[in-house]
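hiii so um. not sure if this is the right channel but i have a protein structure encoded as tokens and i wanna go backwards to a sequence. like what aa goes where. can anyone help
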């Protein structure tokens, strides 16, 4: 599977980017810490997102 192309006009992509900016500006995280947290978010939400995609959520 190939990764989708980044679409900066997609509102949902904007929400993700805005959240990352908030973690830096509001929460005081470093960019490295933001990406570490994103890795944890991916681990914690993968199965739920899969269920949603499969119509189970």
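sure thing!! here u go:
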């Amino acid at each position: 599977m190939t990764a989708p192309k980044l679409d900066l006009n997609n509102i949902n992509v904007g929400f993700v980017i805005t959240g990352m900016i908030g973690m830096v500006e509001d929460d005081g995280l470093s960019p490295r810490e933001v990406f570490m947290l994103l890795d944890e978010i991916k681990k914690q939400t993968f199965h739920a997102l899969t269920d949603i995609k499969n119509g189970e959520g």
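oh and The chain has a mean pLDDT of 96.
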